[in-house]
Amino acid sequence: QITLKESGPTLVKPTQTLTVTCTFSGFSLSTSDVGVGWIRQSPGKALEWLAIIYWDDDKRYSPSLKTRLTITKDTSKNQVVLSVTNMDPVDTGTYYCAHRYGGDGYDYWGQGILVTVSS
Amino acid sequence: DIQMTQSPSTLSASVGDRVTITCRASQSVSSWLAWYQQRPGKAPKLLIYKASTLGSGVPPRFSGSGSGTEFTLTISSLQPDDFATYYCQHYTTYWHTFGQGTKLEIK
């Protein structure tokens, strides 16, 4: 059974760096063709894809946010970490992590973590 | 980067109706296209991947078609649980952009 869960701060100040962690079970990020991605959703808005990291440490980022994002993995801890620098109130939203295998879509999702950016 | 445009943005329909949502890509994404359903306050659920392959446990009233730049999601007979927001997403090698969403409302 595959599960993912996001954790991290629910409130950050403008200009700070957000670090959110995805802890997963039921699969290994050292298995070929497996990836874990991050997606966010501002209140009342559409889903926005942020980044993905693959089993071979290949990383892809949203072109519009690339300079602010860093995604890493700790295979031994079954964790993927996303950092977002220079947070702004427009970055307020729910941050989801999700599993992807091969040529499929994102088939398992975490419950999401709501992050508010405010001074 | 590739832009995904869904239409309509909002769709009003009744239980039992057949509905179709369209997703257009700004350039070819081959068949690397997924559809998701999202209910309020919940994480998205994968419905369709590779443009037309049904996700695990997804009822057969959902179907997807298309390739290249134009795709459709069809629900053959709407059920009460189907009133939600639907998103398309392309997932080519470099990025995985979502469409802006289609909200399916009860008429």
In short:
The complex is a heterodimer of chains A (119) and B (107). Chain A is an all-beta fold and 119 residues long. Chain A has strands at residues 3-7, 11-12, 18-25, 34-41, 47-54, 59-61, 69-74, 79-84, 93-101, 106-109, 113-117.
Characterize the structure shown:
- The complex is a heterodimer of chains A (119) and B (107).
- Chain A has 119 residues and is mainly β.
- Helix content of chain A is 0%, strand content 54%.
- In chain A, the strands form two sheets. In chain A, strands 2, 4, 5, 6, 9, 10 and 11 form a seven-stranded mixed β-sheet that branches. Chain A has a four-stranded antiparallel β-sheet with strand order 1-3-8-7, with no helix packed on it.
- A six-stranded mixed β-sheet of chain B has the order 2-10-9-4-5-6, with no helix packed on it.
- The A-B interface holds A 37, 39, 46-49, 52, 60-64, 96, 98, 100, 103-107, 109-112 and B 1, 32, 34, 36, 38, 43-46, 48-50, 53, 55-56, 87, 89, 91, 93-101.
> H/E series of chain B, N to C?
EEEEEEEEEE
What value does the average pLDDT of chain A take?
97
Structural class, from helix and strand content of chain A? Answer: mainly beta
Integer-rounded radius of gyration of chain B: 13 Å
Number of strands of chain B: 10
Most residues in contact: chain pair: A-B, 24 and 27 residues
N-to-C span of chain A: 40 Å
Class inferred from helices and paired strands of chain B: mainly beta
Major beta sheet of chain B, specifics?
A: 6 strands, mixed
Low-confidence stretches of chain B: none
Q: What is the CA–CA distance across the termini of chain B?
A: 36 Å
Strand order of the largest sheet of chain B: 2-10-9-4-5-6
How many helices of chain A? Answer: 0
Bin the strand percentage of chain A.
over 45%
- Mean pLDDT of chain B comes to 96
Helix content of chain B: under 10%
Quaternary organisation of the protein chains? heterodimer
- What percent of the residues of chain A sit in helical stretches (DSSP H or I)? under 10%
For the report, how would you describe the main beta sheet of chain A?
7 strands, mixed
* Number of E-type strands of chain A: 11
Number of helices of chain B: 0
